[in-house]
Design a protein that fits this description.
This protein is α+β, with helices and mostly antiparallel strands. The chain contains six helices and eleven strands. The protein has one domain. The strands form two sheets. Strands 1, 4, 6, 7, 8, 9, 10 and 11 form an eight-stranded mixed beta sheet that branches. A three-stranded antiparallel beta sheet has the order 2-3-5. Bound molecules: zinc ion.
Length: 262
């Protein structure tokens, strides 16, 4: 024990100093080391980039123009322009999953979004509405955990990310496959069928699902159209890591020029 301790202490001290020195030399965020993190040549034209760069006032003006139903929230730590949806968006209801719901949607902190995320969610609703989607269940948007620890303008503590768990369509999903007789719910956990972590999600080199089911095709179709639309600069599926096996992480991050779709 004693020998172990004397060996460990200097090793940890050295490791800590070395890690600090290395992180100071790396200007790029750690995610950007992922091979799927790419800066598009026309990044300034991408919706996520434009949304992230908007002022709160301009963002709200745009949200009003689109007639997205919302109400402003009282100041929420680390969220620039906090708000809460008050009804379906383009006919698509966004609801907390039963599992995540500690409080009802009208009061739960997990249902608070920054305005920039709300614009991207409105774009997502367009993609979903044409597929006859009626409900999206999500695990959370805002999360207090990490507030003050994670840099502002990033992830859930900034209200800039949504974790989507299930998508329910009215009747048959519109992807040219077999019709479903009634409402169909696809879950990321049960229907994505990842062949492996590290897979490619969209494009000609996309990894094939382990099972070629209507749900697997539907979910890929949705994610890849969202990727083309460019409203989220981070779109992570179960291909990204084990932590994302049951949800899609969709984020509008400020201050970055790269997109990470996996
Ligand atoms: Zn997330």
């Amino acid at each position: 024990m004693a020998a172990g301790r004397t060996w460990l202490v200097p090793a940890l001290a050295f490791g800590g100093v070395a890690a600090l020195a290395v992180s100071a030399m790396l200007p790029r965020p750690v995610e950007a080391k992922n091979r799927f993190a790419l800066e598009p040549p026309n990044v300034e034209q991408k919706r996520a980039y434009k949304y992230a760069a908007m002022s709160g006032a301009d963002c709200l003006k745009e949200l009003d123009r689109r007639k997205v139903p919302y109400k402003l929230e009282p100041p929420t730590k680390q969220v620039d322009t906090p708000l809460r949806f008050t009804g379906p968006i383009r006919g698509v209801a966004f609801k907390l999953t039963k599992r995540a719901e500690e409080n009802p949607d009208p009061v739960s902190p997990a249902a608070v979004a920054d305005c920039r995320l709300a614009l991207a969610i409105d774009d997502m609703a367009q993609v979903l509405a044409k597929r006859k989607v009626k409900t999206v269940e999500y695990l959370s948007m805002y999360r207090k955990r990490g507030v003050g620890f994670i840099r502002p303008g990033k992830r859930h503590p900034a209200g800039l990310a949504i974790d989507v768990a299930t998508i329910t369509t009215r009747g048959a999903p519109v992807d040219g496959t077999e019709p479903a007789p009634k409402d169909t719910t696809y879950s990321v956990y049960g229907d994505w069928h990842p062949s492996r972590v590290g897979g490619t999600t969209c494009g000609p080199k996309a990894t094939k699902p382990r099972k070629n089911t209507p749900g697997a095709r539907f979910l890929r179709d949705v994610v890849c159209e969202l990727a083309d639309q460019g409203s989220f600069n981070l779109l992570l599926t179960p291909h990204y890591d084990w932590g994302h096996r049951d949800h899609f992480h969709m984020e509008v991050r400020t201050g970055i020029r790269w997109f990470l779709i996996q």
